[in-house]
Amino acid sequence: MSESILQLTAATVVKDGRRVLDNVSLAIAAGQHTAIVGPNGAGKSMLVSLLTHAERAVAAVDGVPAVRVLGEATWNIFELRSRLGIVSSALHHHFVNGNSEGSISGEAAVLSAFLSSWGVLHYGSVTDEMRRRAAAALAAADASHLGARMLDEMSSGEARRVLLARAFASAPAVLVLDEPTAGLDMVARHRFMERVRLLARAGTTLVLITHHIDEIVPEIERVVLLREGRVAADGPRAAVLTGDRLSSLFGHRIILDGSNGYLYARPAAAPPDAGPVGD
Fold it and tell me: Could you give the angle at which helices 186-201 and 128-140 cross, rounded to 10 degrees?
């Protein structure tokens, strides 16, 4: 049986009296490329927080842990970071705007993955092998020319490619993409996702969290729909990504088009007095 990347068993997370996740049971196996799709506020990012142990679910029921990551219920957070490759707009913001050490180079950002840090290299030893692997990761992300440049001097698309290199430099068990192309223009978004496709083909498990249907690369065959903290649908992409299901999920009639293995979604024009679609 494939190693479990994420196992949720009746997982519930309560924030400010509201159930952000409500009794969610979900399993993602190694090699099972999966997209988690839902509107804002559906609980998608909370799944990432559970995966990284940044947040905790309520206590386990009958002794069964609500959350297991890579088969384990408890982790040293730094060890877990080394097993997960994360790309997100929040991480991008941290490296560019929230790093107390100031601006860092593209190479330093990638090297920080080996030290389980978020850009600070003062407390670990950087070896020649780490530098070699960082250079290889930058090359694979089409970002070799960005190694010496400062992240805050790069375009959003360039910085996101550096973070992609960082995410897989340490050969993680899974690549977690949380709204990975937020802030990118359509060309940069397409180029970024094409690099992600190469990683999927090479065997890296993808977990994509998004509300952009066109981010769901053809290699992703399983889709989970989240609505108001609950699983609304879970199954093969062809069965789940339908106009009817997405219309109900987003509360508006959605029209789908397809090209080269991608799906593109757009809201249908509605009469001014039309109410929301779905319940």
Answer: 120
